[in-house]
Design brief:
Elements lengths: L1 E7 H8 L10 E5 L10 E4 L3 H4 L9 E5 L8 E4 L2 H12 L9 E2 L4 E2 L4 E2 L4 E2 L4 E2 L4 E2 L4 E2 L4 E2 L4 E2 L4 E2 L4 E2 L4 E2 L4 E2 L4 E4 L4 E3 L4 H6 L11 E3 L5 E4 L4 E2 L4 E3 L5 E4 L4 E2 L4 E2 L4 E2 L4 E2 L4 E2 L4 E2 L4 E2 L4 E2 L4 E2 L4 E2 L4 E2 L8 E3 L4 E2 H39 L1
Amino acid sequence: MKLPKAVSIQEIAMLIGGKTECKEDVKVTSVSLSPLKAQEGEVAFLFDPKVLSRLSECNASIVIIPTGTKCSSPCIYVDRPLLAIQKILTFFQPKRFFPDAGVHPTAVVDPTAELAEGVAVGPYVVIGPQTKIGANTKIMPHCYVGGKVEIGKDCLLYPGCLVADYVKLGDRVILQQGAVLGSDGFAYVTAKPSNIERRLAGGEPLDESNPHLKIPQIGNVIIEDDVEIGSCATVDRATMGATVIGKGTKIDNLVMIAHNVKIGQEALVVAQVAIGGSCTLADRAIVAGHAAIKDHVHIGKDSIVQGHAGVMKDIEDGAVVAGAPSVSTRDFMANAVYMKKMPQLYKDLKEMKKQIAELEKQLSQVHA
């Protein structure tokens, strides 16, 4: 990554909050994408233990390494490597192309909508009646914002987002491309007991029509301050009340959040997660990729749901679970070890049964 200008080791250290003992006027003009392929004139990040063990192979002019690492070349020591990356990339990030303040001629804005100072509305945006949009919010092309929506200040809606009627967004909310807020929750009922209900009650299924009747979803969605929602993620409106995403929570791409879910502050929900209706995720909970959570389940504070887990019951504060159905990660790993041993155990069992049969035969001959 090319830098806009040459930067000295002291300037980088000050920028990222690191420490350097180098007194030379070492400067770099780019950031290396691969530390082991770095060249002179580049700065490289070396944080992975496997890469750090090959530090001598790095030809970068400056290396950024964890505090406590031994290094003889020009280097900067940092306590939190990822934070150092965040700071340097934030400072040198290239310009993004957002619409200018004002309403593009192709946009359709209802005359009853209220747009605060500095709001930017891009091409082909639609904004519904009685909607309020806070100062300096940017709405990029082809977004749809429904009626009686409230959007706070300094928000950013990337192209193709849909914010349905009555949804509320706090300040500094980011919606990545194609995010959908406020679609109807998936809720239906049949006039007569369904075949699933009959089976659960011990009855036989009936081969006859029993249409699914839609349950109106009359609630809304509330997105609190500093939330970011990824591309093509969906947050359903509540059946009644509100689906709530708490302050500072980050939701990845392709996540599905069902009606009446309540997520606390600073939680992380990773790609392809599905959260069932009326679940609660407490503050700082983490749900890793492709996990699924059954409806009406509570995920405790600071707990971690590992990738591909299937959560069927409540999880305590601070717990770490894996597997489907989910169990503690310790038990899951132990079971994985046992599974690897199963072929040998089966072979041993067959041999033992064979030996027991032979002993029984010998004993029967002795007593005959």
